[in-house]
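Page 37, continued from 36.
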C-alpha cells in the first residue's frame, strides 16, 4: 500500500503513476474476488455490510465498494503509521507530556488530537477550484489546482494559541489533519482508534521509553510526513 500512498504526494513521476496503477489494479482484482465470495457466503464483517447496502438500497456500486475498501486499508496502514510514529516522537521529545499521559491515560483522546495537529501525517492535499474565488486579494480561477498546506494550517496562530507548543490537554483543537466538509477522511475514526490503542499501550507498558539517538531520518516525500525509523530504548518489565 505504500506505493499507492504516493497518490498523496503532489510531486509524482511517471514511474510513480505506473507503480500506483499496477498496485491499484491488483487490489481491484483481489476485492472483486472477495466480494464474489461474500455475496455467496456473507460474514460478520464490513465488506458483507457494504454488499448488503448495495443489494438492498442500491446505494453503492461495486466500484464504490472497492474504493471504500482500498481507502480504509490505506488509512489503517500508511497514514496511521505516520500518526503513531510522529505522535510517539512528540511524546519522547516532551517528557513532561509523556509522564502526564502515563499518569492520566484518559487523556489519550485529546493527546491524539494534538498529535494530529502538531505533526500532521498528511502535510499537503490538492484541490481543484469549482468556481472563481478570492482569498486575501488573490484570485483562484475555476479549474485551477490548489495545494493546501495542512501542516501550516494546523500551526496557524490565529486559530491555535502558542501553536508550536505540544500540549496534550489542548482544548478547542479544530485541526485539519483529516480535512473537512465533504472531503472529510472516511478513515478518521479508524485511525483515531488505532492510534489511541497503540500509543497508550506503548506509554503504559514500556517503562522509561526514550529515543536511542537524536538524529532521525525522514522519508523523502512532500505530501506526507513519515520517519524512516524511530529508534528507542526501554527497560524490560520482566
Amino acid at each position: 500500500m505504500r506505493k499507492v500512498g504516493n497518490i498523496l504526494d503532489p510531486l509524482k513521476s511517471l514511474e510513480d503513476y505506473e507503480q500506483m496503477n499496477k498496485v491499484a489494479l491488483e487490489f481491484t482484482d483481489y476485492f472483486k474476488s472477495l466480494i464474489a465470495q461474500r455475496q455467496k457466503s456473507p460474514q460478520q464483517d464490513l465488506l458483507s455490510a457494504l454488499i448488503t447496502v448495495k443489494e438492498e438500497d442500491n446505494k453503492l456500486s461495486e466500484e464504490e465498494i472497492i474504493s471504500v475498501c482500498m481507502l480504509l486499508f490505506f488509512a489503517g496502514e500508511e497514514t496511521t503509521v505516520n500518526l503513531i510514529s510522529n505522535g510517539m516522537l512528540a511524546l519522547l521529545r516532551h517528557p513532561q507530556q509523556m509522564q502526564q499521559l502515563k499518569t492520566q491515560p484518559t487523556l489519550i483522546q485529546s493527546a491524539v488530537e494534538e498529535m494530529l495537529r502538531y505533526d500532521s501525517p498528511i502535510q499537503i492535499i490538492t484541490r481543484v477550484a469549482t468556481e472563481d474565488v478570492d482569498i486575501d486579494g488573490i484570485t483562484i480561477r475555476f479549474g485551477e489546482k490548489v495545494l493546501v498546506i495542512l501542516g501550516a494550517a494546523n500551526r496557524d496562530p490565529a486559530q491555535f494559541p502558542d501553536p508550536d507548543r505540544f500540549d496534550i490537554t489542548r482544548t478547542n483543537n479544530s485541526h485539519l489533519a483529516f480535512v473537512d466538509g465533504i472531503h472529510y477522511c472516511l478513515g478518521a475514526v479508524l485511525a483515531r482508534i488505532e492510534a489511541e490503542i497503540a500509543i497508550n499501550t506503548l506509554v503504559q507498558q514500556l517503562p522509561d521509553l526514550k529515543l536511542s539517538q537524536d538524529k532521525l531520518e525522514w522519508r523523502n516525500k512532500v505530501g506526507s510526513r513519515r520517519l524512516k525509523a524511530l529508534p528507542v530504548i526501554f527497560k524490560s518489565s520482566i
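The chain has a mean pLDDT of 87. Flag for discussion at group meeting. The beta strands are 124-128, 133-135, 138-140, 145-149, 210-211, 232-233.
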